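Got a spare moment? Tell me how you read both lines of this record:
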Amino acid sequence: MDKKSKNMARSEHNVTRRGFVGAAAATAATVAGLGLAGCGGGGETTTDTGSASTDSNVEIIEADEEGFVVRAEKTDGKAPKNECILAFEGEFQEMHPMDWSDGNSGNVVYYIYDSLYDLDENYEPVPRAAESYEVSDDACTYTFHLREGITFTDGAALNADAVVSNYQAAIDPANNWRRRRTFIETIDETTEIPRVDSCTAVDELTVQFHLPEPYAPFMNSMTQFYLISPNVVNDSSFDYSKQSAGSGPYMLEEYAQGDHVSIVRNEDYWGEAPSIDRIDFRVVPEAGSRIAALQTGEATAIYPMPTDQVATVRSAGDINMISIPSTTMRYVTLNTNYEPLSDVRVRQALNYAFDQEEYCRVMYSGAATPATSVLPEIVPGYKAQTPYEVDLDKAKSLLEEAGYADGFEVDIIGDNSTQETKGMTFVMQQLENIGVTVNVKPNEAATNAELAAAPEDETTLHMWYVNWSQSDADGFMRSLLSSAMTPPTGYNTAFWKNEEFDSELEAGNAAPTEDEQNQHYGTCQDIVWPECPWLYLASDNTLLSYKAYLNGIKYVPQGIDVIHATLNV
């Protein structure tokens, strides 16, 4: 799927959405897989009760050509206040702009801190704190030209020296922030090489990053390099959960872990002033509670929208619902060091036993695409692989060859939200068809993060029901599958290691053209797919519902964006 195809068909309505696939063949596949054949405004509705049973009756979600599943009919409503309440399924775990790892936290950070560039809804780089940039002919020097007059909320200037200070703090091993990996690559526990070997201030508003060799994902990575005031960036006592130190359109008011994050408008923001005074990000893990909050107006928008509540939204009359192709991949990591899962035949057997189409129907009411690679289809560099069609006889034969004719027992962990627990239960039910007993163990997100961080010789993980979203091939495959990114360094909780894969990944990063990069990334996918370090599930659409009195909501790679939205008050 080429970039042109991905960027076609943008909405002109009050939702700016990621482009739907435009090429004829890709569109046909999308319609077949997602049911995006026309407007979803009519038809009988039967809803899933929350069980993962494969005989559940669910309404297949259909969206019109602009992504609307439901268009509000009552559009004259008013918001109680000029405040927006966004209800999320998951928690907001970390407010440090250089040390967050979960997408919900990154969504909040996006409002408070500026990066030099952002990605728009079509995954194209757009200026933020920098107004332009250029790249040298050898692709090793990036020069950014900063906007004039930007200040942090404490009055410090966002200039070239401030960017250099942030770079130096980011690479400091004593800080050990997650954004360090933007600039430093970990090869193993004792070996590191720089992706960026210098950052220098050319003049007050010009800053240069030098790379020892070309690194294809550099600009994508820089969109998550959020800048902190130089007054505090080196202050280890500064508490980012109690106050913020950014230059973005909003400032932190309150962070209550596990419950909510509240931000208020930055009255001194350098750009176009936000219209909405205050935004609350609330943790509402139970699906029914989220939809109830939206109905009553206790929430302005909810994410994700429960797939079994379309009829509820439709009957409300004052709620819009949209379905947007996403970069989210759902999968289960299979610890290749755990004895039954150490045999590739066992891992392949699990995939032959798993019905992806039924998973998409039961879990997402059809608003998902079965995984055909370790990358979602819309991520640049995606290469389709041969799917594991359901074949229980083959699955059982592979288990018998591997010495597990009678099956085996395995634990699966995942977050304890409604949807994640339902997903793990679905996996359990699928694998019991070949005699594999799966013990479902839902946990708090923080508990899972701790379990996933355990190193190879200490981990207790067998299987982890999880998801990942990234806008570039390297971000996906390096973080989740490279040998250097096993815990605690990264998220390769399959502990899968392959030298050829690692070599091809490096070659892709260093390749001078997009076509050459994608050839190497394609080879990486060819290598990993038959190895099955994951149980391959699906890439689900972003399902978002919001009150009709909210105008201008967007969904961008950083998450929900209401920075320049307005409320009818």
About this structure: The longest strand covers residues 250-256. Residues 78 and 569 are 5 Å apart (CA to CA). Residues 1-51 have pLDDT under 50 and may be disordered.
